[in-house]
Amino acid sequence: MSTWPVLSLVTFLPLVGAVFILAIRGDADVVARNARFVALWTSLATFVMSLFIWFGFERGTAEFQFVEKAVWFPGYNIDYHMGVDGISMLFVMLSTLLTPLCVLASWDAIRVRVKEYMVAFLVLETLMVGMFCALDFVLFYFFYEGVLIPMFLIIGIWGGERRVYSAFKFFLFTLAGSVLLFLALLAMYFEVGTTDVPTMLEHGFPAGMQTWLWLALFASFAVKVPMWPVHTWLPDAHVEAPTAGSVILAGVLLKMGGYGFVRFSVPMLPLASEFFTPLVFVLSVMAILYTSLVALAQEDMKKLIAYSSVAHMGMVTLGTFTVTQQGLEGAMFQMLSHGVVSAALFLIVGVIYDRMHTRLIARYDGLVERMPVYALFFMIFMLASVGLPGTSGFVGEFLVLVGLFQVNTWAALLATGGMILGAAYMLYLYRRIIFGVMTKPDLKAILDLSPREALVFAPLLALVFWMGIYPMSFLDIMSASVANIVDSHQAALLQAPGRSFASLFSLSQ
Amino acid sequence: MAMITFDMSAALPELVLACLAMILLMVGVFRGESSAPTVLGLSVASLVIVFLLVSLDRGATGIAFGGLFMVDRYGNFMKGLVLVGAIVTLIMSRRYCEEEQIQRFEYSVLMLFATLGMLMMVSANDLISLYVGLELQSLSLYVVAAIRRDNLRSTEAGLKYFVLGALSSGLLLYGCSMIYGFAGTTSFPALAEVFAGIPAGEAPSFGLIVGMVFLISGLAFKVSAVPFHMWTPDVYEGAPTPVTAFFATAPKVAAMALLIRVMMGPFGDLVGQWQQILVFVSIASMVVGAFAAIAQTNIKRLMAYSSIGHIGYALVGLAAGTEEGVRGVIFYLTIYIVMNLGTFGCILSMRRTGVMLENIEDLKGLSKTSPMMALALMIFMFSMAGIPPLAGFLGKFYVFMAAIHAGLYALAVIGVLSSVVGAFYYMRIIKFMYFDEAVEPFEGPIGRDMALILTASSAIILLLFAFPGPVLEGAAAAAASLIAG
User: Fold this and answer.
1) B417 vs A: CB within 8 A
2) What is the mean pLDDT of chain B?
3) Which residue of A74, A146, A163 is in closest CB contact with B469?
4) Residue A501 has what pLDDT?
5) If we measure between CA atoms, which residue out of B218, B219, B208, B216 comes closest to residue B185?
6) Which of A276, B90, B381, B482 has its CA 20 to 30 A from that of A222?
7) pLDDT in the model for residue A1
8) Closest Cβ–Cβ partner in A145, A172, A507 for B424
């Protein structure tokens, strides 16, 4: 185990790049070019640095690794505490992988205020990585909320026509959820006496308190995931955000909610999680079925993928709240797979948007004639999203369903129905855009993928197959931590007294 | 038994300030209008001297004027904040005074006297000295608000402030006399003894409660807490902008400091009686501050509602009625004063073709025309909205921590939800600066002193989260000294 602070380095290296970019002066073109390169090299360096975490990570243990600790608020037991375990480590990798791809994807697409754009992305990377590494609830909250600032600006400045509306909606929805999380955090602080996450994980919260805390946490994470019916900010934000913004939003930001459930709600509040499982199941199944139907009717490609994200994240919440080994691993795997696949799909849409400046499905047809390579890439990612065996999407959904089947057959049945709908809308989208005869005259001159674009897709493509064909390299990392959550969950339920609805009103005890 | 001493060294900073202010008044009178810039410069220098005197922490608590005046670490900390507010606003007003032709030496001298009144308020240890300090401050501020005699809005602001202020002083005095009538003393320590003597479970006499309510009402007016906030938007809008900046910072802190001292000191044992009042006032201020600001188009009016909201958040800490709560309020006010000074620095730089601008829409496209100022203002706005990692969040963190610990869950939930509403109008300012297309740029450059103020305040707001230790410890020590004393 290395002694130097890898996690802090990975977290704060992008900030160094951001400061460099801010310091660039001179002619507008030169500034833009330099900003792009600095951002690319910084994010690549961060990725390389994060590989040390991947290789140095000890498999088969639920312990936190690469732990760093320093006093932050003297006298309050609130510390700067970083560390990763099997649950957070892969998300760190996902964040550091997607950021350089985002920078590359924005290379030509972003022409105004390039400098600020790159700074925003690097700051965003710091906040994302920091959030997954934080082992102190207050520190976590700092990063978790801080993400709103760069994302608000990215949507609002570089977004489409209704960007102001979408940026505000995104900001206010997530903020409204987060403030309740903030109060829950304070209440938990007084209960435990510290905001240290490992200590909190071992603390048994009183049953009556758990209910309220769970609801407050749920308010925040459910908006972030997002769960039906608080998902409405997501289609708007996705449609208006620039391509790279959508990629980060779908790839990492949504996972913050799922991560919150896995890290905080389920292990810290086992009784309440058990109590509210039916609620989560109902909402998730609603999400899967409803948003899949809505996706079928979309005219806008980005909106369609946004709705499919809600459906896929519904699988994640289903898997999480089964609290079984397969269900939780499936949920984690589904999040990672969705992080890769939906990011790729948004990039796919971005490619033709950059050429034609429209996302309307009706404006495209028969693209396979002019863009064969593009059609191939699109097909692979589309099938991964559908969950074809051999791609990453299959493993996650399969594991979730295995877990779910043990707990609730009906939910499993309905969720499977949602998967069929998922195949329907994705294949329908693909048929409309790629197949058929090219009739639109302005499409005749469209160009296939450029080398830069292909380079962006290459790592994602490799990951889709790697995760689909040999998922063990990823499941190995998380299995010990997941087993730990499942065991302590079972133990907590065994000790618990009988639960009744009346305990909802026992906060004052 | 109060010991009578002739030791005035405890009040040394105040005495020095009083003498310097009178000397500067003489300088102004004999040298005429042309001396205004000199007097302004010397005023800043005198305030800096007083600040140094205050910050020479002489450790132990001290009493002067036969127990009327009290010095402790709490007082010194709050005085430091008041003086910082006064110094920075005076520096910021230099250019404004030059360009808007209000070169009057009375302006700076009155600011000095107002500051002196505030220092007295912070150190008051008796209802009499409380009132004297408060009136010295208020009377000076009434005049300063109307310093632009030939401007209708400014005179209107001054008049409104005076009439409503006089009303609130009346309420305050009435409350004081009720308290004196039923308790038989005006001294804070003696009052505390009287209340401590009330057996547990037994309510104090009705007259005392009425007196206390009047006292709180009078003070709530000074901090512009709902429902005594009506004067704030009009006065903020009408007064010259540097005066508004002053209103938003120093007097707010001084009045809050006074309110905290009165509530935690003499009335400390009556928490059960006043807590519900403060909970109501706090909720009302947060909600009104958040909702009323949404429709504003004038940035000074918006800042008025914003300050009403912020006072609501600060009162959350006081409503908890614990040392932890007081610490939270002190910390909150420290951050509040820095954010406000920075924001008003930006507002004072909004000038085009020689005219001061006050509309929010005038900020359109600021991120392109002057990116650094836009960045600074964005930092202040996100901080006021309470988004981490900016300092405004830390302030909220500590007051809500106290509220949760004291079991005030409803207050905390309403507070954080109204902060979401409040976030909307702060975001609106950012929207104008960053999302909209540029109109004409502002007149530049903003001047070296202003640039320094903006840089320093935004750096503090941005980086406080990394090194919260010193400010936190200062606030904790101040709160501890208040509770102990």
Assistant:
1) yes
2) 87
3) A74
4) 45
5) B208
6) B381
7) 45
8) A172
Q: Are the beta carbons of B427 and A142 separated by less than 8 Å?
A: no
Task: Give the residue-averaged pLDDT of B433-444.
Answer: 81
Q: Name chain A contacts of B393, Cβ cutoff 8 Å.
A: 142, 145
Q: What dihedral do alpha carbons B402, A172, B348, B375 form, nearest 10°?
A: 100
Could you give the CA distance from residue A111 to residue B103 in angstroms, rounded to a whole number?
48
- Answer whether A187 sits within 8 Å of B388, measured CB to CB: no
Q: What is the dihedral of CA A200, B387, A114, A371, to 10 degrees?
A: 60
For the stretch A454-490, pLDDT in tens is 888 889 999 999 988 898 888 888 888 888 888 888 8
Strands (E) in B284-401, as ranges, are 351-352, 355-356
Question: What's the pLDDT band for A57 if we cut at 50, 70, 90?
Answer: confident
Task: Report the Cα–Cα distance between both ends of chain A, in Å, rounded.
Answer: 46
Domain ranges within chain B, ordered by starting residue: 272-485
Q: A146, B387: Cβ pair inside 8 Å?
A: yes
A321, two tokens: 């709240």
Put simply, whether B442 touches A (Cβ < 8 Å) is no
Q: Which residue reads 């120093």 in tokens?
A: B250
| ipTM for the assembly | 0.87
Query: What are the phi and psi torsion angles at A300 (to 5°)?
Result: -110, 130
Q: Report the C-alpha gap between B396 and B474 in whole angstroms.
A: 17
Radius of gyration of chain A from Cα atoms? 22
Residues of chain A contacting B387 with CB distance shorter than 8 Å = 145-146, 148-149, 175
* Cα angle: B323, vertex B114, B39; to 5 degrees: 130
Q: How far apart are the first and last CA of chain B?
A: 16
Query: Among B420, B434, B465, whose Cβ lies nearest the Cβ of A179?
Result: B420
> What residues have CB less than 8 Å from B161, skipping those under 6 apart?
B141, B142, B145, B231, B235
Q: Which residues of chain A have a CB within 8 Å of the CB of B417?
A: 176, 179
What pLDDT sits at residue A504?
Answer: 47
Q: Tell how strand B355-356 and strand B69-71 pair up.
A: unpaired
Q: What are the tokens at B165?
A: 């202020």
Question: Which of A75, A141, A186 lies nearest to residue B400, judging by beta carbons?
Answer: A186
